[in-house]
Amino acid sequence: MSSKFQKKRLVIAVSAAISCSASVMAQEAITEEKNVEESIEVIEVRGMRNSIESAQSLKRHSDTVMDAITASDIGALPDVSVTEALQRLPGVTIERFASSSDPKHFADEGTGVLVRGLDRVRSEINSRDSFSANPNGGLSYEDFPAELLGAVEVYKNQTADRISGGIAGTVNLVTRKPFDSDEQMVAVGVQANYGDYRDETTPSFSALFSDNWDTGAGKFGVLVAASQSEFKTRGDGFGLGNVHSRGPADTFSYDAWGTPSPGIIAGQYSNPCIPEAADWRNCANNGFEDTVQYSAEDAAAYTPQYEAEELEGQPEGETWYAPASYTMTSAENDRKRQGITASLQWQSTDERITATLEHISSEASLEYKEYVIASGDRGFLSYAPNGIQWFDGFDDTDESHPLTVDSNGYLTSGVGRGTSPELPLQFRSRYNYNESTIDDTSLNIVFTPTDLLTVAVDYQHIESEQIVHNNSLTSRINGNQVSEHAPFFMDLRGDNPTIEYLNSNTSTPPDVEANTDPILRLASGMQQEEHNEATSDSFKLDVEYKLAGAFTAIKAGLYYSEKELTVRDTDYEGWQALGTPWNAQASYNASPQVVPDLYDRISFADHYNGNTLIG
To answer: Do 114 and 95 touch, CB atoms closer than 8 A?
Structure first.
């Protein structure tokens, strides 16, 4: 809405009202009033009505189910990216993880877009196919500067005139054009984002110039827009692994070394021995002549009453539930975006031909450092449900660390100790740098030879590149040492979950004798490099002939696209085991006692503003 409120008219109205009640007005007062009128400025008030009407117009004239947000909406909403603005639309949700398949890594901004809960969403720019050097070839909406857009359209159904691929829907990013406005436009924007966890403020700048002219050769228009932004955040996370029902086990399976696991597991034995073994594990020598090796059929037929062993103090006949692992994360993210769009338009004097030449360039990078404390995080393993055993107090005299459950039997506090040699306590450090560039050049010509016939020709060329550096190191306390050196008290009864480590060896492991197993050691490292390149050339021809009657138009089209995507990814080839746990000397050589320069002391004291880690 654009309404003009003029003070001089208000003054005249007030004067007229006064003249109705008074019979005489001095000529000097009228003269003075006229002088004041000429010096008073106009106050212009702008609202959201025009923005709402623009979005409504897009939806009203669409031939399918769609929603839209305009540039004014994007600028008015408290969102920092196109992705987050999209979540304001009905039926559209966004992901909050760095990857759909990796829910343990939270994202500072929204990532993938889901339409009606489905992720097969096609992405377009100005109704053209979008393409990038991502391994899946799709467009990362969070990499595209929102300041360059004029509108974002979401089509929730597929129509015959739309390019296939949008099974869940299609998201179309529409950039600004010179002919969007008949007036000259000059705009400059400055914003700032403040991250309270990092106590840093980062700026964002944008500028736009647009103008058009009527000449004897037709109407010409030019638009140039640019933006640059930084966004620094820190995200802290606290997660619990799978929650399992706890109760007394009725059957155990034993591996080749006699380690028991509740239930029946294919390939393991019914007793802690191996039939016909030539060593001490021989069943006959141990008095277990009836031992059998369980088959896959035995495992499939067995249904345990409980998923894991009972807890200390658990009453008979009650079912309790407890988590099998936990994770604490802290990640600092530095995101940068810069983009430029330039558009030239020409329209013939008879308005029969309109040509648009446009170039879009976008460069975005995300650099993050992540630190993770994680207990056994492989929940698919058969022994994972018993990965943590929970106790009432650190010892028999401890009353300050109770084991408690709620009315439904879910554990709310207790002292946890790792129980499995295969489930260590891990300390992971990760550095990731991801840079993406996209250059999109297009030419569109619309020819209307008659009032009923429209022909549109479109060509698009895209070049894109993506570079990824991903390095990580993992140190660990071995699973058979966790119970002694890393016991903890977890409390879920308050507003925030808290954890307190009950042995200083967790954070400050003491020295050990040379060439013996250390408490902490480097376990593995990985270097991943990725360099992807993509090019695309697309041609489209659309013809429309309008009709009168029940059928409004006949449309036909031709689309041709040639794409090339080269993915160079080392993936897990760079992974390497370091201090192997079965070699005491190798573990010792990978400990902070021997190679202190390979370790950094990372403090979690400020995790979640100091409300999570206690002590």
So the answer is: yes
Structural contact between residues 510 and 516, judged by C-beta atoms closer than 8 angstroms: no
Helix (H) or strand (E) holding 589: helix 584-589
pLDDT digits (tens, 9 = 90+) for 22-45: 333 344 444 445 444 555 565 554
Name which of 193, 213, 191 is nearest 201 in CA terms.
193
Asked if residue 412 lies in contact with residue 493, where contact means CB atoms within 8 angstroms, the answer is: yes
Report whether 223 contacts 195 (CB < 8 A). no
* Contact status, residue 153 vs residue 554, Cβ threshold 8 Å: no
Which tokens hold the place of 331? 């990640």
DSSP secondary structure of 201-250: EEEEEEEEEEEEEEETTEEEEEEEEEEEEEEEEEEEEEEE--EEEE---S
Which two tokens mark 202? Answer: 């980062």
Token pair listed for 22:
């008074």
Query: Under the phi-then-psi rule, with left for phi > 0, alpha for psi from -120 to 50, and beta for the rest, what region is 10?
Result: alpha
Q: Using one digit for the tens of pLDDT, what is the confidence trace for 509-552?
A: 999 999 999 999 999 999 999 999 999 999 999 999 999 888 88
Q: For the purposes of burial, counting CB atoms within 10 Å of the CB of 439, is it exposed (0-12), middle (13-18) or buried (19 or more)?
A: middle
